[in-house]
Design a protein that fits this description.
membrane, three-stranded antiparallel sheet, 22 helices, monooxygenase, five-stranded mixed sheet, alpha+beta, globular, oxidoreductase activity, acting on paired donors, with incorporation or reduction of molecular oxygen, heme binding, Cyt_P450_CS, 54% helix, Cytochrome p450, binds protoporphyrin IX containing FE
Length: 589
């Protein structure tokens, strides 16, 4: 679709440059929609009787105008209410507020630019009003409320009332159904209670063995790589290793995904992520029926079928094994199965805890699939992203790598034995490195809640009201870098987390990479229980620590790019655009 040159000329002369950019953005969005849905549009057109096009267009134009006017009226009413609630929006030059559609059309389509824009909007709001706790953006008549200071996150995260996830999470349901991440109300409460024992110490101790085994395999792969490649992009090997770990720990399925370049399950997961991110950014794909009819929606269905097929097969095989053993062992079953006979290698998996619930009619097979899929989704990419950023920061700070080398030498000496839980507890500096990495790069950059009741917040004598119906969107990445809470927030400084460091007395909501309150990450219990730490500030990511300790014991490396110059993509997960390149060398080669 071409815009008449006269309009282009008028726009160039009289419309400010920032608004011109937003107009171009809207044009790209519209064109992408037309291109991707050509078939669908043709189909709609085929229903219009021949010769009736003009009449049809008139009725359609009139009805559309009425609907748009109504939406615009609702939008204006909401914005007037927000002004009374002391919540403002950003200047149009940062993010344009369109009639009817609000800010939704003004968001950058490129994920790196989108994230920069969001962060710039938060900075602008803080600079323009030092007392501001929140900013809003409109998605048509629906407001998204964004805390711009950590103090604004506390009332919602801490609440037992606001536990419903934001509407964006619906886009994960084609794969995850309504499992722990996406469900709410009594279903969520029941599932959370059922799943908590899956993180019991006996289950988790088995994981250390799996993690060591998979990390050792990654060392073999890296050894092979450095023979032929000068610079190595670490994102891919780390992601595959994390996926290998979660396939075995969640499902108990023997997995060698790291060595199988074309593994169909891994491929389906990566394709699903990519297409979900496209859907996330494209409002027109949100209604399920448009998505289902669109070519990429159909492609996505195939990915979902593949992933469900894989999980269902594993669940059924393990369930049959469970039932057979139950019959064979009678009264001894419980003690034997959970102690040593879960599979031929005597290993427990999250799935085994769920099978017991199935046996006691507390969950059905579909419920089990939802939860296993949820662990797959939440468990691998989060860890892989954190690891990747840690490797980047370590490779850019030789003094950090030196301290890590000294620490692993002290704990492991020359031995290449697997890491035990006791070893992991002793790696205090490595723990500080993982915490600082998750401060600068929390794996989940944004998370959201749907507000079911008005929530009042009083701060420095000023009252803010987060209205019912708002999507409350928490920019974890930006709040972790708040200059009122962290000195030199852009600096990577693991010393903050050592004894006497600034993090010891920090405000709790200035750092929450695992979220906080009732809907926090159930995966963090892995660390919590195993290490017997009573203080939440002492957790570290077990998987990341085991994988990183293997890496530090075997290799040294230098990062080829400066961290703060790497473009960050923050859609579902915070990751470096194009991964990270390092020069990797065998230690003591
Ligand atoms: C570095 C590693 C990880 C980070 C940074 C992380 C972070 C988070 C965050 C921020 C949330 C809240 C998300 C939201 O409200 O939308 C969450 C939820 C969750 N995480 Fe993790 N996670 C990690 C690892 C894991 C692992 C290893 C598992 C499972 C094995 C896991 C399972 C879950 C589940 C099931 C939820 C939903 C909990 C609920 O709503 O009740 N996560 N995680």
């Amino acid at each position: 679709m071409e815009i008449p040159p006269i309009l282009v000329e008028i726009a160039k002369r009289y419309v400010p440059e920032t608004v011109q950019a937003q107009l171009l953005n809207a044009k790209v969005l519209f064109q992408t929609f037309i291109e991707n849905n050509d078939e669908f549009i043709q189909k709609i057109a085929s229903y219009i009787p021949e010769g009736k096009l003009n009449q049809f267009s008139l009725v359609a134009a009139f009805s559309s105008a009425s609907v748009l006017l109504f939406i615009h009226f609702l939008k204006m009413r909401t914005e007037a209410k927000l002004a009374k609630c002391n919540i403002k929006t950003v200047q149009n030059s940062i993010l344009y507020n369109w009639p009817v559609f609000g800010h939704s059309l003004g968001f950058e389509t490129d994920p790196v630019d989108f994230f920069r824009q969001l962060n710039a909007a938060i900075e602008w709001m803080k600079a323009s009003d030092p007392d501001a706790l929140y900013a809003y953006a409109m998605f048509g008549p629906k407001p998204a409320i964004i805390p711009v200071r950590p103090e604004g996150a506390e009332p919602i995260l801490n609440s037992q009332t606001h536990i419903r996830k934001g509407m964006f999470y619906r886009l994960f349901e084609d794969w995850l159904g309504t499992g722990l991440l996406t469900s709410h109300g009594s279903k969520w409460k029941t599932r959370r209670r059922l799943l908590t024992p899956a993180f019991h110490k006996t289950v988790l101790t088995e994981f250390v063995e799996v993690m060591n085994e998979k990390a050792a395999k990654m060392m073999v792969i890296l050894d092979e790589k450095i023979k032929t490649e000068k610079k190595i992009n670490m994102l891919w090997p780390i992601t595959l290793c994390a996926l290998d770990i979660i396939v075995e720990t969640a499902m108990g399925a023997e997995s060698d995904i790291q060595f199988e370049e074309n593994n169909y399950y891994a491929q389906a997961i990566f394709d699903w992520m990519e297409l979900t991110q496209i859907r996330h950014k494209s409002v027109w794909y949100w209604p399920d029926w448009i998505w289902a009819l669109s070519p990429i929606g159909r492609q996505q269905n195939k990915n979902v079928d593949k992933m469900h097929h894989f999980t269902e097969k594993v669940i059924m095989e393990r369930w049959e094994h469970y039932k057979e053993l139950k019959e064979e062992l009678g009264d001894d079953f419980e003690a034997t199965y959970f102690a040593e006979k879960c599979d031929s290698r005597g290993r427990m998996a999250f799935l085994d805890t769920l099978l017991k619930c199935l046996d006691q009619n507390e969950i059905d097979l579909q419920g089990i699939r939802e939860e296993v899929d949820t662990f797959m989704f939440e468990g691998h990419d989060t860890t892989a992203a954190a690891m990747t950023w840690a490797i980047q920061e370590i490779g850019q700070h030789p003094e950090v790598l030196k301290k890590l080398n000294e620490e692993v030498e002290l704990v492991f000496g020359d031995s290449d034995r697997p890491a035990t839980m006791e070893d992991i507890d002793k790696l205090i500096y490595l723990e500080a490195v993982t915490k600082e990495t998750l401060r600068k790069f929390p794996s989940v950059p944004l998370f959201a809640r749907e507000i079911d009741e008005d929530q009042e917040v009083i701060r420095n004598g000023k009252k803010f009201t987060i209205p019912k119906g708002a999507i409350y969107t928490i920019p974890c990445y930006k709040l972790h870098r708040d200059e009122r809470h962290w000195k030199d927030p852009e600096k990577f400084d693991p010393n903050r987390w050592l004894d006497g460091g600034a993090a010891e007395t920090r405000y709790a909501y200035s750092y929450f990479p695992f979220s906080a309150g009732p809907r926090n990450c159930i995966g963090q219990r892995v660390i919590y229980i195993l290490t017997n730490f009573n203080d939440i500030s002492k957790f570290a990511n077990l998987t990341a620590k085991i994988m990183l300790s293997h890496l530090v014991r075997n290799f040294s490396w230098t990062s080829l790019r400066v961290t703060n110059e790497i473009p960050v993509i923050a859609e579902i997960i915070t990751r470096p655009k194009d991964g990270i390149d390092v020069i990797l060398e065998r230690r003591n080669a």
